Amino acid sequence: MQPKTPLVWNPILRQYLVNAPHRMNRREGIVTCPFCADITEGIVSPDTQVWIHPNDFPPLQPPVGEAYVVIYHRDHQRTFTQLSVKEVTAVAHVWRDLYIDLASRYPTVMIFENSGESIGQTQHHPHGQTFGVSVIPPILERELETVLQETAAGRGCPFCRVRAELEGEVYEVAANTTWQAFLPPYARYPYETHLYPRRHIANLAGMQENELRDCAELLLRVVRGYNALFDGAMAPMPYLMGIHQLADERFHLHVEILAIGRAPGKLKYAASAESLWGIWTNDSSPALKAQELREAIVKGGK
Ligand SMILES: [Zn+2]
Ligand SMILES: [Zn+2]
Ligand SMILES: [Zn+2]
Known about the structure:
By secondary structure, this protein is an alpha+beta fold. A hairpin with a 3-residue loop joins strand 7 (172-175) and strand 8 (179-182). Helix 2 packs across helix 5 (209-228) and helix 5 packs across helix 7 (286-300). The chain has helices spanning 34-40, 85-103, 138-152, 158-166, 209-228, 272-277, 286-300, and strands spanning 7-10, 15-18, 51-54, 65-71, 108-115, 127-133, 172-175, 179-182, 193-197, 239-244, 254-259, 261-263, 266-267. It has one domain (7-300): HIT-like (HIT family, subunit A), CATH 3.30.428. The model has no long low-confidence stretch (mean pLDDT 94). It contains seven helices and 13 strands. The chain has a nine-stranded antiparallel sheet with strand order 3-4-6-5-10-11-9-8-7, with helices on both faces. Strands 1-2 form a two-stranded antiparallel sheet. The chain has a two-stranded antiparallel sheet with strand order 12-13. The structure holds zinc ion (ZN) (3 copies). Residues 157, 159-160, 200, 252 line the site of one zinc ion.
């Protein structure tokens, strides 16, 4: 029996999961690129850099959700780290436009990227994804609960506090005028990196031009830093990157990058403790990994 909606409620964990059996047949490693086809078929002009492509196998459809692909560059061979700050800034502008559009219909806008074949990237063309979703996913809900508790207790925004506490500390890996990047002491993955805007901003709609540019600049520097670890022995670092944001003005937008590599040639898997209980084991010292990454970012920043 097919469920009526792809959002299936788990009454035990009290959270939704997406059931999308039609996605089993999506193309993997096929020869013709559906994003290059947008140009050859005249859907977008050949000089377009960034564009939005509807997800051909959407896990969610209206009214429960919408799914899109954001193409970062017309050049199929280009990788994210080969983009310029200006080009990534153009991508960030499209993220902001998409956020504004989808937030008018959905409480959650998930902007993310799965980078690397080992974690399920099926198309090589540089791209990321965006979902509008009619429910708030468990991790965002948990973060929002923290914000509401701390605000009610008169302690203000927990993200602002963490950012200030880690500023200039051993956990900071890079920073610029409006953003700060750190490897938190509570990192789940050895090279997990969080990027916070210095100003309290709930979502992309409130982000100014210089903040979008600085976000692009810092993202590029961090990912290039991953690829410079151990003289390039971990490149290209597979990672999951996502922007956490909400319409609630008490929330504080941030970017989380779960870098999957843990050492040259080795990946960190969400194994039993993580998957069956939700308790993460990080077998490395975040302060030490932050130092490695900080040095690699200096090297990788050309
Ligand atoms: Zn392509
Ligand atoms: Zn804040
Ligand atoms: Zn978060």
